Amino acid sequence: MSDAKENAALSSIAASVVITLGKGAAGLMTGSLALLSDAAHSLLDVVATTMTWLAIRAASKPADEGHHYGHGKVESIAALAETGFLFLLSGAVAIEGVRRLWVEQSVVVVHWSAIVVLVISIAIDAWRYVNLTRVARETNSEALAADALHFSSDLVNSVLVLLAFGAAAWGYPQADALVAIGVAIFIAVAGYRLARRTLDTLLDAAPVGYASQIRKIVRDVPGVVDVEDVRARRAGSDLFIDLEIGVARSMPFDRLGLLKAAIVTAIRTAFSEAQVTVTATPVTLDEETVLERVILIAARRRLPVHHVTVQELSGTLSVSLDLEVDGGLSLGEAHTIASQLEAAIREELGAATEVETHIEPLVVSSLVGRDVADGMKTSVIESLTRHAERSRTISDVHNIRVRETGHGLIVNYHCRVDATLDVTTVHEVVDRLEHQVRKDVPDILRIVSHTEPLRSL
Questions:
Q1: 296 and 396 share a domain?
Q2: Residue 257, Cβ neighbours under 10 Å: how many?
Q3: What is the CA 166 to chain-centroid distance, rounded?
Q4: Which of 2, 45, 399, 451 makes the best surface tag, with the fewest CB within 10 Å?
């Protein structure tokens, strides 16, 4: 991209030099102020385009410790300098035009060589304008866009000078001074347009209409609750966008990372030059239940909880839960953890909320296990099978595994239950079965059951 911008600027410099020399010679030959002012404008283009080339080289440098946002604004500074030249030139041409119009009679000698120079200049300016505009759009270069503006004014100037020659040939030599004044006004207007856009960039003005477009793009990304703020600014060919979005506070961190990546991709689809920074703020959703809020509070503290029960008692909220902590902690340490969790829940749900925690031991380290002897495994299998048959609900006990650890036996098994039963009923039946098996085999530390729907016959 940088090479394309530099090549466009270099070719423009070469063309400007050729046109400036041709217009200057033709202006001296004919005595036309309009043509001389046009040559002066072309000379300015040589200086301005050289500045543009130097600015593009500087702006292409990557960000460093002293310039975290890169060097893109060098292009804007160069464009601002070009604007100053434009205003000086327009003022000088306008003053000379008024002087010739009111003080002395203009003498314009129309020569075929001047007409040839102007026609060639119009063709080259048209080519330069089209080429620079294309590259400026492809690379989002403010400096090249400024050059394209210069060359469009050159094109109009040359056409006006041709009209002045025609008027002089028909006996109206004062048209030359009038056209020169018109050229000065045109240059001043072009300079004003360039100055306004350049100052907007240097002052970090928001590009018109971009914020609303970006908001619409971001709101359409699934997972975004709200777009709280959008800030956009240009620096050279880069568009810097800072976003603040609202997301459900229950959203996992890995999902949040994917959401941010999706937002950046969506914005860059519309604005390929965008450098996007996304900041996410957790938001409490209206549909978030008390249960979800309690589980979220525990998850943020990395505390495993289960059997969370929420009750509404005559306007008072009651929450009870089982809290698992390291089984090696003292009761005092465990109670402190539970009290801090209870306080966090009350802060979230209200100070009047009743919170009760049941502390359970949690094995936090991996257990080294091995398969038990056949005799012990047979005892566990017989106990599971016998109590399952007595339950009249559990059937097809299978895939039984019994492992021995330093803390006791770990039993895993699969079974089948009628698929129409609700989860609560199934859990109660399985829980009774596990208690009965533990009475038969006291060495069991934990029983893990996997319940499957009963196959239809």
A1: no
A2: 11
A3: 56
A4: 399
Q: Residue 439: count other Cβ atoms within 10 Å of its Cβ.
A: 10
Last residue of a domain, one of 151, 170, 202: 202
134 and 272 housed in the same domain:
no
Which domain covers residue 352, as residue numbers?
290-362
Going by C-alpha positions, the residue among 131, 161, 162 that lies closest to residue 148 is 131
User: What pLDDT is recorded for position 88?
Assistant: 72
- The verdict on 173 and 219 lying in the same domain is no
221 and 170 in a single domain? The answer is no
Segment 251-288, tens digit of pLDDT: 777 888 899 999 999 999 988 878 888 999 888 776 67
| Residues 300, 277 within the same domain | no
Q: 15 with 105, same domain?
A: yes
Quote the crossing angle between the two packed helices 73-102 and 33-59, to the nearest 10°. 170
Residues 25 and 41 in one domain: yes
Question: Measured between alpha carbons, how far is 192 from 9 in angstroms, rounded to an integer?
Answer: 22
The CA distance from 174 to 71, in Å, is 48
Nearest partner of 344 among 293, 306, 297, 284, judged by Cα: 297
Nearest to 180 by CA among 156, 161, 159: 161
pLDDT band with cut points at 50, 70 and 90 for residue 225: confident
Sheet containing 354-362, strands listed edge to edge, beginning at the edge strand earlier in sequence? 305-313, 316-326, 354-362
**Domain finish residue from 181, 202, 223:** 202
Phi and psi at 20, nearest 5°, equal -60, -45
* CATH code of the domain in which 24 resides: 1.20.1510.10
Model pTM score = 0.48
Query: In this predicted model, what pLDDT tens digit does every residue of 61-87 receive, in sequence order?
Result: 655 565 545 555 566 666 666 677 667
Task: Give the Cα separation of 408 and 425 in Å (integer).
Answer: 28
Phi, psi torsion values for 9, nearest 5 degrees? -65, -40
Residue 213 CA, distance from chain mean position: 13
If asked whether residues 160 and 98 sit together in one domain, one would say yes
Q: How many domains does the chain have?
A: 4
CATH number at residue 238: 3.30.70.1350
Pick the closest to residue 359 from 382, 333, 378, 388 (CA basis). 333
Apex 96 CA angle, 93 and 101, nearest 5: 120
